[in-house]
């Protein structure tokens, strides 16, 4: 690996129950033993929702839950994928004829994204095959980035099989780009934290260029993840991509309003950078330039002086071309205010005032309100769970991940943690049909985990 690439660690598999079980299952499945294992973590985004693809910094941390893949390179050109979860069927294909079906976000397509990303980055053909057994303990469709962890894991698997070297930053950028093969127009946060995470610290992730800065979280409080039990697969609906396009359109209308070269602008951050003003001033610009009523495609075309055909083919993504309306004012207001909250959060962590936990909690509460009211990416169950968490002792609680289902993250003083967990369990899960014991997948405290790794058997 490159000096700043993902670490390779020697392990005694017999001392790691999960690795040992994976090795035995691999042996049973393929009749051989793995040559190495790769791990990539999921993540929880503490604050900074739906702003990475707008060019703004976010503040995630890796969770201890992860994707783990046991790997054996083979002499044939067949890529054989299996999963320890029987819900996910086996898949095999030629390593040199990768096809990713955007219409069906099946589990193996995320692996193929990472594989194809490395293949295309190096311009490779005539690739050797491999046998892979995937084991994940990140709850799927929960907003903890199980799909991106699988893309990252696959990218690192492919790089390792080929004996090639890349830095963590390069890997993160390739995997962020390659996940778009499945049709999700994400911004790169999930892949960046999966590779750049370090145990014990959250990270401020900045883009263009990609870099990560440690953010030391306050002692005396923990983050608790709670699953709403509403699944949301962002590649399976257009909600996510419509929001990406609304932000792109808002950026273009703001740029046009300020006589900037709007046709070159893609992200809301670019408008701020070109104007050289603060986030607070951008909120005023958005107030002046945009109206709260939804925009029709025809109205947008009128502002920009383009035809409907040009809007559809040159600006909108294929799966958003038929959207009847776009809410630009609300989306821009969310993005600029959320970007400011990320910077405030980092500053409070650095200054560590006596009431740091209360201040951070209030920023998380503001974030949820903005996600719910301006970005409209919450759902009734998430709102109920957030309220339950706050009533049960959290200083702050918000949805995390794309939204429309998935998980909440709450900031909870350590001394009330046992009471908090018991109250949320009783109020949200018990007697609701959501499961008597959500266990580690439903309700758990987490601390910042480490990033992607290659394990070799010692």
Record the SSE blueprint:
Blueprint: E1 7-11, H1 17-30, E2 36-47, E3 59-73, E4 78-83, E5 91-94, H2 107-121, E6 130-136, H3 146-162, H4 168-178, H5 189-196, E7 202-206, E8 211-215, E9 221-227, H6 239-257, H7 268-275, H8 279-289, H9 297-304, H10 308-315, H11 328-351, H12 356-373, H13 380-391, E10 396-400, E11 407-413, H14 417-429, H15 439-442, E12 443-446, E13 453-457
Parallel strand pairs: 1-13, 4-6
Antiparallel strand pairs: 2-3, 2-13, 3-6, 4-5, 7-8, 9-11, 9-12, 10-11
Describe the structure.
- Residues 358-429 form the GHMP kinase C-terminal domain.
- It is an enzyme of class 2 (transferase).
- Its EC number is 2.7.1.157.
- Residues 25-73 form the Galactokinase N-terminal domain.
- The chain is α+β, with helices and mostly antiparallel strands.
- Helix content is 41%, strand content 19%.
- It has helices at 17-30, 107-121, 146-162, 168-178, 189-196, 239-257, 268-275, 279-289, 297-304, 308-315, 328-351, 356-373, 380-391, 417-429, 439-442, and strands at residues 7-11, 36-47, 59-73, 78-83, 91-94, 130-136, 202-206, 211-215, 221-227, 396-400, 407-413, 443-446, 453-457.
- The strands form 3 sheets. A 7-stranded mixed beta sheet has the order 1-13-2-3-6-4-5, sandwiched between helices.
- Helix 2 packs across helix 4 (168-178).
- The longest helix has 24 residues, at 328-351.
- It is globular, with a radius of gyration of 22 Å.
- It starts with 6 loop residues before the first strand and ends with a strand.
């Amino acid at each position: 690996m490159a000096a700043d690439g993902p670490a390779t660690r020697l392990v005694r598999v017999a001392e790691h129950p999960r690795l040992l079980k994976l090795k035995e299952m691999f042996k049973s499945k393929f009749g051989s033993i793995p040559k190495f294992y790769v791990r990539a973590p999921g993540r929880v985004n503490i604050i900074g929702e739906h702003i990475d693809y707008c060019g703004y910094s976010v503040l995630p941390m890796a969770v201890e839950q992860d994707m783990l893949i046991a790997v054996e390179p083979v002499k044939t050109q067949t890529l054989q994928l299996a999963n320890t979860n029987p819900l996910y069927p086996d898949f095999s294909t030629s390593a040199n004829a990768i096809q990713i079906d955007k219409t069906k976000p099946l589990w193996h397509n995320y692996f193929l994204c990472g594989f194809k990303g490395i293949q295309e980055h190096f311009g490779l053909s005539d690739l050797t095959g491999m046998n892979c057994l995937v084991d994940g303990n990140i709850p799927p469709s929960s907003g903890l980035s199980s799909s991106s962890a699988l893309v990252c894991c696959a990218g690192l698997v492919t790089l390792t099989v080929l004996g090639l070297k890349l830095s963590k930053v390069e890997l993160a950028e390739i995997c962020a780009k390659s996940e778009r093969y499945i049709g999700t127009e994400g911004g790169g946060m999930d892949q960046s934290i999966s590779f750049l995470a370090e145990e014990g610290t959250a990270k401020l992730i900045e883009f263009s260029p990609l870099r990560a800065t440690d953010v030391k979280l306050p002692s005396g409080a923990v983050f608790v993840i709670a699953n709403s039990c509403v699944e949301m697969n962002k590649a399976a609906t257009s909600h996510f991509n419509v929001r990406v396009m609304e932000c792109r359109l808002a950026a273009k209308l703001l740029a046009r309003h300020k006589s900037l070269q709007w046709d070159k602008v893609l992200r809301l951050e670019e408008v701020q950078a070109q104007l050289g003003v603060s986030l607070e001033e951008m909120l005023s610009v958005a107030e002046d330039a945009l109206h709260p009523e939804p925009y029709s495609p025809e109205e947008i075309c009128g502002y920009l002086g383009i035809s409907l055909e040009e809007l559809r083919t040159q600006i909108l993504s294929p799966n958003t071309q038929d959207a009847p309306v776009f809410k630009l004012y609300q989306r821009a207001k969310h993005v600029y205010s959320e970007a400011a909250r990320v910077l405030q959060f980092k500053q409070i962590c650095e200054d560590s005032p006596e009431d740091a936990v209360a201040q951070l909690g209030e920023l998380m509460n503001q974030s949820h309100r903005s996600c719910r009211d301006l970005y409209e990416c919450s759902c009734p169950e998430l709102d109920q769970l957030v309220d339950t968490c706050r009533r049960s002792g959290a200083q702050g609680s918000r949805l995390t991940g794309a939204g429309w289902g998935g998980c909440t993250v709450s900031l909870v003083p350590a001394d009330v943690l046992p009471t908090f967990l018991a109250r949320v369990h009783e109020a949200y899960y018990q007697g609701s049909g959501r499961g008597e014991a959500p266990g580690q997948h439903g309700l758990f405290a987490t601390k910042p985990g480490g990033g992607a790794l290659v394990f070799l058997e010692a």
